[in-house]
Structure formats: structure tokens, C-alpha cells
Amino acid sequence: MANLNFHFVITFLFLLRHFSATSDISELFEIWCTEHGKSYSSAEEKLYRLGVFADNYEFVTHHNNQGNSSYTLSLNAYADITHHEFKAARLGLSSALRNSRPVSPQEPYLHQDVPELLDWRKKGAVTAVKDQGSCGACWSFSATGAIEGINQIRTGSLISVSEQELIDCDRSYNSGCGGGLMDYAYQFVIKNHGIDTEDDYPFQGRDGSCRKDKLNRKVVTIDGYSDVPPNNEEKLLQAVAIQPVSVGICGSERAFQLYSKGIFSGPCSTSLDHAVLIVGYGSENGVDYWIVKNSWGKRWGMDGYIHMQRNSGNSEGVCGINMLASYPIKTSPNPPPSPPPGPTKCSFLTSCAAGETCCCAKEFFGLCLSWKCCGLSSAVCCKDGRHCCPFDYPICDPQRNLCLKRTMNGTRTEALENRSPSGTSGSWSSL
Which residues lie in coiled coils (predicted)? Predict the structure, then answer.
């Protein structure tokens, strides 16, 4: 709170010095809050966010008024957070892993017939833009996007696969929301003989325990992966001509946070800290660009996309986009659909239906004498023997009839209405 009070004073002084402009900024901020569904925990917090918004407004206005840039900025969905906050929450490419990047088992192939323009979205090989939230797992979104692309190209079926499975289960080298690298994600999928779908193993926006039952649902497979030689834009172009390609970039520039449209040309560092997906390329007014899919939601950039300058004259590429490119290889068909799961075995004599969890209702010296069934898969059984909670709301609070989970900052909880193991009290509902 002391830190927030300090920001409150700074914001207040800023508003005093700029009182004539504050009225317009405040009105604009209110409109922006309504448009983006923003609300704040206190008047103090809202005033602080107004100050951040005003500072970002000045940055955006200064850039756009220069009139000589190939791209424009806007007060997008991230205009009320500082640049430091944004960098802390929205990146996630591991520099440590990049420095020890394994040698890819396949050599990059060449593609001689490179079309002048290409957009894999128009060919049905790109899923909808996703949002990593404050989880630093951009590496998983980049990897799944590449897997989704090559799977559609090889099978004709566009399937959204699970970032959360990679976040929870790919822990040999990658660190979930703490960062990772696409090469290791490909290695995980190859070793696991496939990956589950987004629908079956949905994104939670935080680290979780690996759901072993989902590991066996291998819906989409890949057979290998290859790295594009660093700083070789010609081979990167040839790879993109065949499929969407994962790349690392520097995504921590302030202009990147507030990007709106146009061809992003920097200036920016080549210190790679973010992972995205190249899904095509084109040209506009004589300037070549990559079509890049990000994982910051549709309210950033051009509905979640950015055009980044290509053929900039720098071998590393704008923001280092040519430095760390890789793609999965798929030659084999996907496995046939798994048969419907059978009953869940509780004991020798007792079982629950498929997709349910066995909960012990009565035990004696560690031996369960009576079982009940929770109508949820991989649920947490509460100690009172009468309630259960979903795996992602694992804290039981039977006195208030709630299931809780701790949020990313560790200070607040979110709750769901509790359900008894018999499954007779209705569906889960948000409070």
C-alpha cells in the first residue's frame, strides 16, 4: 500500500500541473474504461491508472504526430499499465534456454517456388488469436500455433491444441508461466506421442498440476522439428512458404505494447524475450513485411496481429525476428480417436461413471468404507466427505459452501459454488 500511496501522490501532482488537459484525459479515460470493461478496486487505484493512461497517451500522441513512421500506436487494451508492468506479465521466452538451445535433429529444407505473397490464414491453417494473459508462456502459444498449422496442412483438419498441457506437463526444461522455448515444446510432444486439444485441456492462465489423464489423449502428433539457421532470412522465407513458423523477437519495446496498425519497423532491441508465430508475408507501398500472430488477444494490434518489416537490411531482422525460428515436422497421420473412457474404479466392488471422481465419504484408519461419486473429472475431494471441488479450484471451504483458488498475485482468491459428491445440487456457477 505504501508503494501505491507513492504513486498516488505522483499522479496527483501530475494532474495539478496539467489541470487544463486533465479534464479531457479523464473523459477519454472513462470512455476507454467503458470500451474495455475496466474497473478498479478503489478510487486511489483508479487515479493511479489514470496517471498511467495519461502518460501512455502522451507517448502515443508524440509518436503518431511525427508523421514519418510506417506504423501507428493507439490506446489499446494495455493503455492503463506501465511499460514495466507489461514487460513483467506479457513475455516469456527464456533467454537461459535459448543460450543452451539443442541442435535440431532435422536440417531445414529449401523451397524453391516461393510465392510473392502468402497468408496461411486464408488457407485455413491458423486458429483464432489466443490470449496468454499474465502467464509468461508465449513459447507454448507459439509452439501450438506452429503445430496447429502443419497439422491442418497435412490432414486438412484445423484443431486447436492445448497450451495448458505444455504449461503443466512440459517441465524437463520449460517452466510454464515462468518462460520456455519452442524447441523443447516440440520435443515434449514428440516424446509424448501427441498433444491434447484446447477444448479438452483448456487454458487456465496460470501454472497447474499436470493432468495425467489428458496426456493419454494424443489427438495431434508431430514427427520432428527443425531450426532455421540464425540470421538467414532467405531460409526463413522458404520455411514460411511451406508452413507457419515459430520465432523469437524482442517484444518488450514500449511501442510494441501500444502498437495499432501498419508495418512495425522499430527501433527495437534484438534481445529476444517473446515468442510469436509467422503466418505469412506480403508487401505494401514497396515495404516487405511478415504477418505475425501474437498471443495478447484480439484487442492488441490488428485483431491480434502485427506486420513486421521484412528485408530490413539487417541480417538479424527487425526485433531479431530472423534469429530464433523453428517449426515442427509432420509426416504421419494422427492416431484414431480414443475410445470412450470406461468407469472410474474406486475399489474392487465400487466404481463411478466415466469422467467422474471417486471420493471417500467415510473412512476408518485410512481405509475407505464408503465411496461417493463427484461428477467432475480429476476433482479434489473435500475432507468433510460430502463435497468436491474442480481441479482448478482446489481449496475446499465447506463452511461457506465454496471452492477457491489463489490468483496469480497470491493475495486474493476466486470462488465457485460447491457441489456435493452425489452431483445432485446443480452445476457450478461463478460468484
Answer: none
DSSP lists the bridge partners of residue 404 as 395, 415
Catalytic residue, from 135, 250, 274, 359: name it: 274
Please identify which of the residues 294, 322, 346, 387 carries the catalytic annotation. 294
Helix (H) or strand (E) holding 98, with range, is helix 95-99
What does the pLDDT read at residue 402? 86
What size, in residues, is the chain? 431
Cβ proximity of 160 and 295 under 8 Å:
no
In the chain, the N- to C-terminal Cα span, in Å, equals 27
Which residues of the chain form CATH 3.90.70.10? 87-329
Verify whether residue 33 is a known catalytic residue.
no
Question: Which grid cell is 317?
Answer: 531482422
Cβ atoms of 256 and 268 closer than 8 Å: yes
pLDDT above 80 (res 406): no
Across the chain, which distance is largest between two alpha carbons, in Å? 78
Q: How far apart are CA 376 and CA 421, in angstroms?
A: 9
Q: Is the pLDDT score of 319 beyond 60? A: yes
**pLDDT of 200 over the 50 cut:** yes
* One CATH from 3.90.70.10, 3.40.50.410, 3.40.50.1820, 1.10.260.40 for 87-329: 3.90.70.10
Grouping H, G, I as helix, E, B as strand and the rest as coil, residue 161 is strand
Higher pLDDT, 11 or 30: 30
Three-state SS at 322 = coil
pLDDT over 80 (residue 15):
no
Q: What is the mean pLDDT of the chain?
A: 88
pTM: 0.80
Residue 413 pLDDT: 58
Rounded Cα distance between 380 and 288, Å, is: 53
